[in-house]
Amino acid sequence: MATRKSGPAAHPAADASTVAVFQDTWTLYRKVVENNYLCHREAYGALHDALTGRGRSPFRFLDIACGDATASADALQGTAVAHYRGMDFSTQALELAAAALAGLGCHVVLEEGDFLDLVPNRRDIADVVWMGLSLHHLQQPDKLAFMRHVRSALAPGGSFLIYENSLRPDEDRDGWMRRWDEQRPSWTAFSEPEWDTVTGHVHAADYPETTETWHRLGHEAGFSRAAHVLTTQTELFSVYRFDT
Ligand SMILES: C[S@@+](CC[C@H](N)C(=O)[O-])C[C@H]1O[C@@H](n2cnc3c(N)ncnc32)[C@H](O)[C@@H]1O
Prior knowledge:
The structure is a single chain. By secondary structure, the chain is an alpha/beta fold. 41% of the residues lie in helices and 25% in strands. The protein has helices at residues 16-24, 26-34, 40-52, 70-76, 91-101, 115-118, 140-153, 173-181, 192-205, 211-220; strands at 3-6, 59-64, 81-88, 107-112, 126-132, 154-167, 209-210, 225-231, 237-243. Helix 1 (16-24) crosses helix 9 (192-205) and helix 3 packs parallel to helix 4. It is globular, with a radius of gyration of 17 Å. The mean pLDDT is 94. Bound molecules: S-adenosylmethionine (SAM). S-adenosylmethionine binds at residues 11, 14, 18, 22, 33, 65-67, 71, 88-90, 93, 114-116, 132-134, 137.
């Protein structure tokens, strides 16, 4: 059974659309994931490969902004995970996460609160940290500050993997948003109001970076190695890996 810990209330700086999409209407996000519109299958497949690549040594896994942890639970199957810690400010998502993680057979701790409050000042709490589709809510200096906190929370030899919005070389945020908007015809399972809710959040809260910038942030945060693991088929997202 999962241990639940309530942290501080949602950060006042969290964008209103982020709260609306992830705290009030989780079912809509489930529909996005189930239709693979954000390429979860590729991203979490890469996470699974990275975790099995560690061999059979038990590891502690920290899932920042874990949501309902469904994709993480799948990615962790067949790995040597010994301890799972998830963090999110959505009560609804964490209730689903407890159920999704029950079959993993390792100790599970779920912390409810804002990751900007929960991660700083933690030392050696994980061997692998994963953050799926959430670091992009921060502006560049805040991304860097947060990545430094993640670096400190990792054990020696640990890795930080992110699945994030990524710009093409020389593309700016407006260019990325234009490419996002061009996805509309392929979101056939979504009504116009559903698409508008998700797209309104993306336009309000997402700040993608180029691969070059993600790598630079990783090095400035104190990681010794930064690697580009994959770019999704839509070329809107990438997985990066930073080693201590
Ligand atoms: C796009 S979902 C990603 C969920 C999952 N990681 C995935 O890859 O599908 C964003 C998640 O981040 C959470 N979130 C966003 N900002 C947060 C914050 N500042 N603190 C804690 N959780 C946050 C939301 O509640 C939501 O579960």
